[in-house]
Amino acid sequence: MDLVTRSSGLMVWQFGSLFVMLGYLGFTIYALIDLIRSEFRDQHMKLIWAILILMIPVIGTFLYLGMNRKTNKHRRRFSPNFSNPKY
């Protein structure tokens, strides 16, 4: 009875997980470089984001990348003018 058998499926899983890990490492490095280059109103926010990215790996990285400040610049702000009624 053989307890260990050769299987090519194992190599597929190993290479697949290697590619996923390298991809995630790339996202993390990109998030950290973006964090270092970006400017915040409060310098403590940079430290908080760095702790989130490093201590809560998957959630922190994609939360930071998802809440990118560059996309918020193009959003239209709600600023009604109630002093000049049109009716």
DSSP, total strands: 0
Elements, N to C (H/E):
HHHH
Q: What is the 3D form?
A: elongated
Uncertain regions spanning at least 5 consecutive residues = none
C-alpha Rg (nearest Å):
23 Å
First and last CA, distance: 90 Å
What is the tally of helical segments? 4
Helix content: 55-70%
Residue fraction in strands: under 5%
What is the overall pLDDT average?
82
The largest sheet, given as strand count, sense and whether it forms a barrel, is: none
Structural class: mainly alpha
Structural summary, described in words:
The mean pLDDT is 82. The protein has 4 helices and no strands. It has a domain at 12-71. It has 87 residues and is mainly α.
